[in-house]
């Protein structure tokens, strides 16, 4: 009995490890997001100019060879091989492209419409990339200043003050100098605990990313449950739904297609939408009502329900509004983090100045 249980457990563990390795390998084979979007924009552009799919791929392969883009050349060859085996274009893209882009290719039949969708995806990606770069720039200097202040406090309390005490007749017992020495003793422990917590969080996020097929950023967002992340997820949901509805796909079919390739909170939201549609709910506001959707978004959906505009346009407007709200909230969080970092750094610099100043002043007074 025990041997049977151990054998079953080992088999389950091996299957789990094999699945995680497969997910990691699949993630490594994918192109980066910007390259994926640009590839599909170029492909749709060739199709709009009257080339067949085979001719468009031949042109892209020749262009990739011209600039020695080996990865792109391999992707084109892989797509051509899959098409030669009778696979559809969307099936041929699964290995190297994200699920939402594959879904666009699967549901788009008009090259002009496909190109517009890819350009919209590119704009959204550039906005989010710009926000990330802005966040890094805003936090870089305060974080560097804070780290430099911490190192300076440690250096002053652990190295400079003991040498000053050695030069004086006895230990320096002034309160600011004592605070500085106490802070210097805490610095290694704080750095050790902080580094350990960061490494542990990244390991947890990486493990979840491999297990569920997330990107690392998505895994961090799923774990942190950040409101900004939720707004970005909801913006992507509204945009994808609006895009599919604009291509004459029914709401039921659109939700089904999106759920097949969704992960995390988005997948749970699509499951909720499917349940609501199965119960015969017709109002888009009621169909969208879930724990992911906030009050403001529900108000926007409800207010636009009586509009003569198409559902697809309404959803894309809501997606744009959600993106702007996420950006504003992100900027507010970045500002708050910058203020905290600057405040801590200035406090440490003040402690450094007062501690060393009192020690030097005491020594000068003693010598005089």
From TrEMBL:
Annotated compartments: Cell membrane
Domain annotation Type II secretion system protein GspF: ranges: 39-162
This protein's GO CC annotations: plasma membrane
Protein topology in the membrane: Multi-pass membrane protein
Top-level division of the source organism's lineage: Bacteria
Transmembrane regions listed in the UniProt entry: 139-161, 186-210, 231-250, 270-288, 334-356
Keyword Disulfide bond attached: no
Major subcellular location class: membrane
Signal peptide: none
Pfam families cross-referenced by the UniProt entry: T2SSF
Keywords annotated in UniProt: Cell membrane, Membrane, Transmembrane, Transmembrane helix
PANTHER family reported in the protein's UniProt record: GENERAL SECRETION PATHWAY PROTEIN (PTHR30012), TYPE II SECRETION SYSTEM PROTEIN F-RELATED (PTHR30012:SF0)
Family statement drawn from the similarity comment of this UniProt entry: Belongs to the GSP F family.
Name of this protein: Type II secretion system protein GspF domain-containing protein
């Amino acid at each position: 009995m025990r041997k049977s249980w151990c054998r079953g457990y080992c088999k389950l563990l091996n299957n789990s490890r094999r699945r995680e390795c497969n997910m990691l390998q699949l993630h490594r084979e994918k192109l980066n997001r910007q390259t994926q979007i640009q590839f599909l924009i170029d492909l749709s552009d060739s199709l709009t100019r009257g080339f067949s799919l085979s001719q468009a791929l031949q042109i892209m392969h020749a262009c990739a060879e011209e600039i020695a883009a080996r990865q792109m050349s391999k992707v084109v060859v892989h797509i051509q091989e899959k098409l030669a085996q009778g696979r559809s274009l969307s099936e041929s893209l699964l290995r190297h492209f994200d699920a939402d882009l594959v879904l666009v290719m699967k549901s788009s039949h008009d090259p002009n419409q496909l190109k517009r969708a890819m350009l919209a995806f590119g704009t959204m990606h550039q906005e989010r990339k710009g926000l990330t770069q802005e966040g890094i720039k805003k936090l870089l200097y305060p974080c560097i200043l804070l780290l430099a202040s911490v190192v300076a406090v440690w250096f002053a309390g652990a190295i400079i003050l003991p040498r000053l005490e050695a030069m004086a007749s006895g230990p320096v017992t002034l309160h600011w100098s004592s605070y500085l020495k106490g802070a210097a003793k805490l610095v290694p422990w704080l750095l050790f605990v902080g580094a350990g917590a960061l490494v542990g969080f990244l390991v947890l996020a990486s493990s979840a990313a491999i297990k569920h097929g997330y990107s690392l950023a998505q895994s961090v967002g799923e774990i942190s449950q950040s409101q900004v992340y939720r707004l970005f997820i909801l913006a992507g949901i509204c945009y994808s739904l609006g895009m599919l509805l604009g291509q004459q796909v029914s709401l039921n079919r659109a939700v089904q297609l999106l759920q097949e390739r969704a992960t995390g909170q988005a997948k749970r939201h699509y499951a909720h939408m499917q349940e609501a549609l199965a119960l015969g709910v017709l109002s888009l506001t009621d169909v969208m009502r879930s724990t992911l959707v906030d009050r403001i978004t529900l108000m926007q959906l409800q207010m636009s329900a009586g509009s003569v505009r198409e559902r697809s346009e309404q959803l894309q407007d809501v997606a744009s509004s959600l993106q702007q709200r996420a950006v504003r909230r992100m900027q507010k969080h970045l500002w708050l983090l910058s203020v905290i970092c600057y405040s801590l750094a200035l406090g440490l610099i003040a402690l450094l100045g007062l501690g060393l100043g009192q020690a030097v002043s005491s020594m000068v007074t003693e010598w005089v």
